[in-house]
Amino acid sequence: MNTLDEERRRLTEMFDIAPSRVLYAVSVLGVADRVPPGGSTVERIAAAVGTDAQRLGRLVRAAETLGIFRVDAAGTVRLTPAGTLLRSDQPGSLRAEFSDNALFTAWGPFAETVRGGAPSYDLANGTSIFAGMSGDPGALVTFHAHMRMRAQQLYRSLLPFLLRRCAEDVVDLAGGTGGLSELLLEGDAAVRVTLTDLPEVIALVPPDMLRRHGDRFSAEPGDMRAGIPRGYGTYLLGSVLHDWADDEAAEILRCCADGMVPGSELILLERVLAESGPDPRRMGDMWMMAMTGGRERTRQEWAELAGSAGLTLRHVHHGAGEISAVVLGRSG
């Protein structure tokens, strides 16, 4: 096979939408939930989830090629370790995320977004991703449960740096239901964390988190765009600014700068893209363009954004994963 043929095959494989839709169907139907530890048959699973057995069998065999199931010669279906992540009761489950059809259909008008239109999600669904959640309490609960789990995964490799850099009094701005706050509180018995987010989000903070950490932890409703708690040593913004285009992100940073005092630092936990050359994190940039109209940024772009809000980029710490800590201070 010549080089051009190899490239044609590679591009064709990348263009194939079928694998993601197979995972979607397995998740929506709850197939993994119906596979016990000892395995089951396609017929039993089909009866449990209410599908045609022959078609479900084809879906299961397709998912087997993706490493979700193992099917032996007798037809017994078992979950692989990857397959367990599609169970509803599995810690860190991906089932809810993979069942969200709006995330798939949102890519349909993506070319229009690139031309200069609204986010692809908005064009496909008639509303923004955040407005859609605000009108659907169930979606809000699912989203923030997922983000809490994801925060603890994404930021864990940065925890040693954060514990060294943070002051004893920390504000976790727009911190959801406290995934990042929990990491800090469990990592250092001396740190005190104030979590802020919108009232409907703060209402979802696990009650046991408040009980376990006592006066070291508080959760306060508030919109950071209307102002932040003043006078703290460290402010954290975890994966927030990438949701926003530059103008909106700069406005958020200006609100943060207004609440900071000399010596305060604002630490952004965000992707920092390579200045040049291929970078897998560029796919995350496409997700933000499509879903929210936001963007991922390079170090230089973070520095310029900070400068437009009266802040200075002091340091960037790269963790073991895809997220870095971008440390900002007040200019002057």
From TrEMBL:
UniProt key word Repeat: no
Residue ranges of every copy of the O-methyltransferase C-terminal domain listed in the record: 107-311
GO BP annotations listed: methylation
Keyword terms, alphabetized: Methyltransferase, S-adenosyl-L-methionine, Transferase
GO molecular function, one term: O-methyltransferase activity
Residues annotated as catalytic: 242
InterPro entries registered for this protein in UniProt: COMT-like, COMT_C, COMT_dimerisation, SAM-dependent_MTases_sf, WH-like_DNA-bd_sf, WH_DNA-bd_sf
Residues annotated as domain O-methyltransferase dimerisation: 18-86
Domain of life: Bacteria
Name this protein carries in UniProt: Uncharacterized protein
Organism: Streptomyces gilvosporeus
Lineage: Bacteria, Bacillati, Actinomycetota, Actinomycetes, Kitasatosporales
